[in-house]
Write a structure and sequence with these properties.
Length: 268
């Protein structure tokens, strides 16, 4: 998967000490109930390496949080600061899948208005409806469970014949198969459709330790806490209770940001 490549590149980049320090300092852990594929990308190594180094050079040298985080309205995800990723392959992939997801939500709206309704669109409505009568943690948990059981885990190599491919929610529901990013994207959109605000939803890119792999999951804020929705378990884990997984990137409606350790983090 493409994510592993980015992390490896960061470790060898001019600013790699940030990620390396983060790897040594954090001890976030997932205890998965079962193993699902997130395959590693081996093609286009040089292209992605150059692209990622461009991210590092163009991003601000000073970590910057979003205004609401700075004002204390939203707790820092994993207790870490972030800085923007200005350009690169990850940002391009996220922009593409956001546009595809927005189109898919328009298709869903047509269904709700009694217009043409495909099977995948109706399935997305059903997934979002799993938590319709609930709120907070209960709503998030029911939708997390429904999506986990709606897809069969498969690597991009096995399904598409390519190392890495991010699918929109309707494409994933059409094939009924996907890897960790596909689960995460579908959950992100299903939770939006269920009424969660964009400010309360993010996709996080993690470096797992056990098993040693790169991974994508959803972070949803409910009842004042960030909860991690993983496709390998039905358990909702609070972000600060996660271990053996290093948070690397966060993707949301504002774009892509990189987790960094601030001066106050280093003093602890």
């Amino acid at each position: 998967m493409f994510i592993r490549l980015l992390i490896q590149c960061a470790a060898h980049s001019a600013n790699g000490f940030r990620v390396t320090g983060l790897l040594l300092a954090c001890s976030f852990l997932f205890e998965p109930s079962w193993s699902l594929p997130c395959s590693a990308a081996r093609a286009s190594l040089v292209a992605n390496y150059v692209s990622f180094r461009g991210d590092v050079r163009r991003a601000s040298s000073t970590p910057r949080n979003l205004p609401d985080q700075e004002n204390g309205k939203i707790p820092r995800l994993f207790g870490l600061d972030t800085e923007p990723v200005a350009w690169g392959t990850l940002l391009e992939k996220w922009h593409r899948v956001k546009a595809e997801s927005a189109h898919d939500l328009e298709v869903v709206e047509q269904c709700r208005a009694n217009g043409p309704c495909s099977v995948p669109a109706q399935k997305l409505i059903d997934l979002a409806s799993e938590g319709a009568s609930r709120s907070g943690r209960a709503r998030v948990g029911l939708i997390n469970r429904a999506v986990n059981f709606a897809i069969t885990p498969v690597s991009d190599e096995a399904q598409w014949g390519v190392p890495d491919r991010w699918s929109g929610p309707l494409e994933t529901l059409r094939s009924k198969r996907g890897d960790c990013e596909d689960y995460a994207i579908l959950k992100y959109v299903a939770l939006l459709e269920a009424g969660l605000s964009k400010a309360d939803l993010k996709i996080v890119i993690l470096k797992n330790r056990l098993p040693n792999e790169d991974h994508a999951a959803v972070a949803a804020r409910a009842d004042g806490q960030w909860l991690i929705l993983d496709n390998r378990t039905l358990t909702l884990v609070r972000d600060m209770d996660v271990a053996r997984a290093i948070p690397i990137f966060v993707l949301d409606d504002d774009g892509v940001r990189r987790f960094v350790r601030s001066t106050r983090d280093r003093r602890r």
